[in-house]
Amino acid sequence: MVPVLAAIGGLLLGFTAGFLYRKSIAASNAHSIETRAQKLLLDAEREADASSKQLLAEAKDEIATIRRDADEDLRGRRDEVARQERRMAGAEAELKTRTARVDAKESELDERDEKLTYVRSQLEKATELHRAQLERIAGLTSSEAREQLMAQIVDEAKRAAMSQVREIEQRAREEGEERARKLVTIAIQRVASEQTAESTVSVFALPSEDMKGRIIGREGRNIRAFESVTGVNLIIDDTPEAVVLSCFDPVRREAARMTLGKLVEDGRIHPARIEEIHERSLRELEEHVRRAGEDAVAEVGITDIHPEMVKLLGRLQYRTSYGQNVLRHLVESAHIASSLAAEIGLDPTIVKRGAFLHDVGKAVTHEVEGSHAIIGAEIARRMGESLEVVHCIESHHGEVEQHTIDAVLAQIADGISGGRPGARRESLETYVKRLERLEEICSAHEGVVKTFAMQAGREVRVMVEPEDIDDLQAQVIARDIAKQVEEELQYPGQIRITVVRETRAIEFAK
Fold first, then answer.
1. Within this chain, do residues 411 and 371 fall inside the same structural domain, yes or no?
2. pLDDT, average across residues 382-390
3. Structural domain of residue 187, as residue ranges?
4. Whether the model pTM is above 0.90
5. Which is it for the CA torsion 12, 17, 22, 28, positive or negative?
6. Would strands 496-500 and 459-464 be described as parallel, antiparallel, or unpaired?
7. What's the pLDDT tens digit per position in 464-503?
8. Which of 385, 419, 453 is a domain's end point?
């Protein structure tokens, strides 16, 4: 027991001694660590003090540098301000000098203004005195003298303008007349149309005088049946071996003429026979109309024509205008328009078609109200013609403003075809009235002595007083007459206005 306790005591003593030894070692280690830490702390404080001193020194140096730069900049700014003050002082002095000069100029101008006002008042007084003296000497007031002066200036301006216009027109006429005459001549020569166009005949010749009684029939039943079936008035008068067919529709009149011809040839004339023959004549006439339209289209050389348009053109075979067959007029106009277009270097396709169809509206003018140009344009538009062709049709009488060269050429071709010698004729009454009005227009101008309408109204000669009218005024009169004739009269072709101014010296030898 005792040994065990002794062993346990020894162990406890050894353990205690080891613990104390380790504790002493730890304490010594802690003391050495604390010592080193204090040393390191002192070293760090010393280094921090040295670094702070260095930073402080650098900051002081930088502050000194900034202060020097600021002082230099301030000195520079002060110098600049001083220079600006000196310049402003110089400018102020110069401004004062200029102000003094302006004041001097203003006072000088005031003096000049006063002098000019005085001089102006003196001139006005002198002018009034001079004007009064001139009015007393001339016997005219200032307004009258002004009017005379203005009239004289206007007259001189008119003379100068007319002289220049005459020179320009003379040059243009010399260059253009020959060319235009050549174009028109070539176009007409290429047409080679007959001198007088065929006109529709409304007088039917009978083989004998006895045929009139058979046409009339018992108590007039045949003639009544004929008129009711055909819609044409049959006039039987004292004209030997002839009757007259009267109707506003040329196609209906032609159908009646064909019916009457077959009845007279057959000899059997009664109401039933009249109806039968008339129906047959209508079928034949429709074929004639179609064939006439096709022949015209083929002669002109145009393709792609609507079949209904061909029929309308064929109906124009039986219509005339001033004695000129309308269908032949269309063919002739198409050839002329094509020649004119070719001569001036244009494509003749559109203008030929437009000229060929320009009077197609005349085929239905008795059925539709309105101008044949507008009616024809509507028909062409409905039948698929191009806008250019429609414009040629609607503008050939000036009812629609022309805006293409094709429309102008179509109108020219229409005028050439209708106005050429032998193409048309007009009634005597209309002809006389037109010539009388032509002479009245010419005689109404001041200075005109005599007026003579010549060459069937295509030329008018105006005789003027040579003492009252000079050459330039004669030119003015001719131009005014031409313009008035264009505005008031309707005529085919053109009218030449010739103003004659001549002086005659007459003496007698005794």
1. yes
2. 90
3. 140-191
4. no
5. positive
6. parallel
7. 988 888 888 888 889 889 888 888 887 766 788 889 887 7
8. 419
